[in-house]
User: Which sequence fits this backbone?
């Protein structure tokens, strides 16, 4: 099927009539009928049953619709991009981030970036790192943010900010003297909030504890760092987290200490090795890095 065939076919599948498809595509009804007839002729089979002016998809049409849906979305995206370029607008920047960075760093960074790119279109999404790698490789995202370097041959990982592994506890847990000292694994006692099995940061904490001969017991285990932060803020226990999540916590409700021995945690800018960043995407990355570093300095 040609691209025009697919476009007309999808319009008919969505609205169910020749007249409706013509309105959606801004072309005449005879033109829609002609394209559909040509597509069915090429395929060698009818795609719809005609009943009193309405078109009912055959099973083959449903299968074809499922297979061509992504191609149709890509075609619409190309047309939107062409329209924006014609109007001298900045192209769409598609950013994917792990949830903790999306909440702790992105809002302020986006505010700063918007001052120089007020008309730009930015699409934001959150995924875990393994899904982020797939999105970049498939061209579904332009750039991404993660606390992990996926070490994938098709992905460029650029560190743009870093802090240290941080222990966070409800306000009033530690004295002024204790706050001035780094935190060691043997201090993990009482109600502890752990990270889900398989979480990279959680595995680092487990390894660090084992190195000091400590085996902490977690009564509460969470899937995201933001949930752990919220629990600590509510007084539910102590958690070992990345510095960006810790820096985004309410300073009136928590206390923070650096883990000892010091363990750096990096924020990585990820991109596909075969796809260089546009000017708008690179400037957004610069704003994110500057915001992340300022967030840690303030904390």
Assistant:
């Amino acid at each position: 099927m040609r691209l025009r065939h697919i476009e007309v076919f999808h319009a008919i599948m969505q609205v169910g009539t020749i007249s409706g498809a013509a309105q959606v595509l801004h072309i005449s009804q005879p033109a829609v009928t002609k394209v559909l007839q040509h597509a069915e002729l090429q395929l060698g089979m009818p795609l719809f049953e005609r009943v009193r002016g309405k078109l009912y998809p055959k099973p083959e049409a449903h299968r074809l619709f499922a297979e061509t849906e992504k191609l149709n979305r890509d075609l619409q995206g190309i047309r939107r991009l062409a329209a924006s370029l014609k109007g001298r607008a900045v192209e769409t920047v598609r950013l994917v981030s792990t949830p903790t960075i999306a909440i702790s760093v992105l809002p302020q960074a986006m505010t700063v970036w918007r001052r120089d790119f007020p008309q730009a279109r930015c699409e934001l999404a959150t995924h875990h790192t393994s899904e982020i790698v797939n999105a970049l490789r498939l061209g579904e995202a332009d750039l991404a943010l993660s606390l992990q370097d996926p070490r994938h041959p098709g992905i460029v990982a650029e560190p743009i900010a870093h802090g240290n592994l941080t222990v966070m506890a409800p306000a009033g847990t530690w004295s002024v003297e204790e706050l001035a000292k780094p935190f060691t694994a043997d201090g993990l006692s009482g109600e502890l909030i752990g990270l889900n099995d398989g979480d990279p940061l959680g595995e680092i904490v487990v390894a660090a504890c084992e190195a000091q001969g400590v085996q902490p017991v977690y009564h509460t285990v969470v899937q995201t760092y933001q949930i752990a932060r919220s629990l600590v803020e509510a007084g539910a226990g102590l958690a070992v987290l990345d510095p960006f999540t810790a820096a985004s916590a309410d300073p009136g409700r928590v206390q923070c200490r650096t883990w000892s021995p010091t363990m750096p945690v990096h924020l990585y800018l990820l991109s596909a090795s075969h796809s260089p960043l546009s000017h708008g995407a690179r400037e957004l990355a610069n704003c994110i890095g500057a915001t992340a570093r300022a967030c840690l300095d303030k904390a």
Notes: The two ends are 58 Å apart (CA to CA). The first strand starts at residue 48 and ends at 51. The mean pLDDT is 89. Residues 167 and 240 are 4 Å apart (CA to CA).
